[in-house]
Design brief:
Layout: E1 3-7, H1 10-27, E2 32-35, H2 42-51, E3 59-62, E4 64-66, H3 77-89, E5 96-97, H4 109-119, E6 125-128, E7 150-153, H5 156-162, E8 175-178, H6 181-186, E9 189-194, H7 200-208, E10 226-231, H8 241-249
Helix pairs in contact: 1-2, 2-3
The chain binds fructose -6-phosphate (F6R).
């Protein structure tokens, strides 16, 4: 079962997440991080930047990238990762990869990305957000639980949700490259964050619902080491919230 940690704010969630990253990097300075984009990881990046760690040897793999945006577009995930994570955290840009950024054709980009991840020995810690459709990465409903990095078509819900980053809905790409659910499940530790009411149903489905490709986030239930860090609003539809709080408050010394 995922460990579910319910915290009062996104800021405290970011601080706890930063503790997981800091411990990993202390142990392994060239750790491999899986990087999410969007609003959700921002408190984590802020908390990590405040720790002023040496992350220059850390390797990174973004979850996904839009197809069709020109290089350097402010909302391409290469640009977003550079602006929001690489620069503030002191990551080394050449060690951080985004699907499709190897200069090759889109056809085959998924297999090449899988090979690049495998060549590092795999992702140690995968940071995840979740969409209102239940997607992790851009694995929209119907995605195979064993899927690898590939091209996906975004749902209209996801395009609407992401339109806030663009001038208009028409500017939001319809396609993306995304790590698959199988790719995500190969990471050694999953760290899923969610904040706000709009994520409550997706979080309840991911943590407590049946495992189903109809709610791709539920794939986390197949993984042996998952930490779900949510605020009260995102936790509001969890049936076993009291138990999760009790388990976290009473965790054993070696788990702290
Ligand atoms: C982003 C990603 C997506 C987002 C999700 C939530 O790289 O893979 O799964 O995590 O769409 O987006 P925000 O955080 O903007 O609500």
């Amino acid at each position: 079962m995922a460990e579910v940690v319910i915290l009062p704010s996104a800021v405290s969630a970011g601080e706890l997440g930063a503790e997981f990253v800091a411990r990993l990097v202390a142990d392994r300075p060239d750790a491999v991080l899986g990087l999410a984009t969007g609003s959700t990881p921002l408190p984590l990046w802020t908390a990590l930047a405040a720790r002023d760690l040496d992350l220059s040897r850390v390797r990174g793999f973004a979850l996904d990238e839009y197809i069709g945006l020109p290089a350097g577009h402010p909302q391409s995930y290469r640009t977003v990762i550079t602006r929001e994570a690489v620069e503030p955290l002191g990551l080394t840009a050449a060690l951080v990869h985004v699907p499709g950024d190897d200069g090759g054709p889109v056809e085959g980009a998924g297999a090449r990305y899988e090979a690049a991840i495998a060549a590092t020995g795999g992702v140690d810690l995968q940071v995840l957000g979740i969409g209102r459709t239940g997607h992790i990465g851009f694995n929209e409903p119907g995605s195979s639980l064993a899927s690898a990095t590939r091209v996906k078509t975004l749902t209209e819900q996801t395009r609407l949700d992401n339109a806030r980053f663009f001038d208009s809905l028409d500017d939001v790409p319809r396609h993306c490259l995304t790590q698959g659910l199988g790719t995500i499940l190969r990471a050694r530790h999953l760290l899923l964050f969610a904040f706000g009411d709009s994520k409550a149903a997706a979080i309840a489905g991911a943590v407590e619902g049946p495992v189903s490709s109809s709610l791709p986030g539920s794939a986390i239930q197949l993984h042996p080491l998952v930490t779900v860090i949510v605020d009260e609003a995102a936790a509001s539809q969890l049936q076993h919230a009291d138990y999760y709080r009790f388990a976290w408050d009473n965790r054993l010394d070696f788990e702290r």
